[in-house]
Amino acid sequence: MRRILLVCLFATVLAPLGVQAQEATPNHVFQRTEEVLLHLDLLNAANFSETAEIEVPDDPTRPRHVLQTARDVWRKLQLLRYMNGLPTASLDPVPSREVTPSDVKEVMDRILSGVVDLRGAYGVEDEVATPALPEGKTPTDVNANLLRIGAQLDALGVPATVPNDVFQLASTVLMALEEIARHTGTEFNTGSLWPETGRTPANVYQAVHQLIADLKTLSEADPRFTVDGIVDPGQLSGDITPADVMKILSRAMADVQAIRAAAGVEDPAASAPYLGGKTPSDVYFAVKQARAVVAALSGNGGSLF
């Protein structure tokens, strides 16, 4: 049942936002995240559940990265709504253009509405006042709050992220890169790469760091793919989980989407299908294929593998 649900929910989560939200700044988006957190505090109190401590990175972040984090929060929210007998919905694909704070706020408005709907399921009646509009907030601040929201949703019983979830995102990254190669007439060959065995989430996590470094080098070297703000984020400490891999892979997805737009690919990127039975080795292999396509785009096809 969970696999079928995720096929329906996650297949479109990576997927242009429709009508643009009213012009917004990171301050407006941060205000909305604070309001969502207040509601989730009440839900977790009613549920007698405690939110796990999370490591919040302070890496430089662009709205496109925040949007991808918000979309993963949306995925979790839909799972929780389903578990509580509430209707679920999908998001439109990410537009092939520069992402703005207004795009993020549009998703946050929907997240707030979806969380408020859960109050009845948990017997919450307390009112929540809209927090005051802050000043000086950045996309990095917003992203940190979104990670806290994700942890709050996890505490309410959202099923843990598994390799199947991460594999879908890794496959979507690969598909987007292959589209860029075809659009620019770049030949690539991933068919000669050997599948992987025995890989762990930590191995995949390191491979995604390498992918982001590859994307940064490509963007800086070729004006066709110039994108600001590609930064290899700091590495987490401790054991690496599929959820940790999902977070950094979401960042890579945002950068690939930006490079795709810069290259002139106009259609929104499609999401890969959701498949069951996947392992960290399968995810690692998809990331390795993605790195091979980036190498081809850089004129170094075959030199990395």
Describe this protein with a few key phrases:
globular; 305 residues; disordered N terminus; single chain; mainly alpha
Broad structural category: mainly alpha
What is the string of SSEs from the N terminus onward? HHHHHHHHH
The average pLDDT is: 91
Unreliably modeled segments: 1-21
Helical percent range? 40-55%
Total DSSP helices? 9
* Record field, number of beta strands: 0
| Percent strand | under 5%
Oligomer: single chain
Instruction: Evaluate the radius of gyration.
Output: 19 Å
User: Looking at the structure, what is the overall shape?
Assistant: globular
What is the CA–CA distance across the termini? 39 Å
Question: Largest sheet at a glance?
Answer: none
Summary of the model, kept short:
The chain has 305 residues and is mostly helical. It has helices at 2-10, 26-46, 63-83, 101-116, 139-155, 163-183, 201-221, 242-262, 280-297. It contains nine helices and no strands.
How would you summarize the topology of this molecule?
Layout lengths: L1 H9 L15 H21 L16 H21 L17 H16 L22 H17 L7 H21 L17 H21 L20 H21 L17 H18 L8
Helix pairs in contact: 2-4, 2-5, 3-4, 3-5, 3-8, 6-8, 6-9, 7-8, 7-9
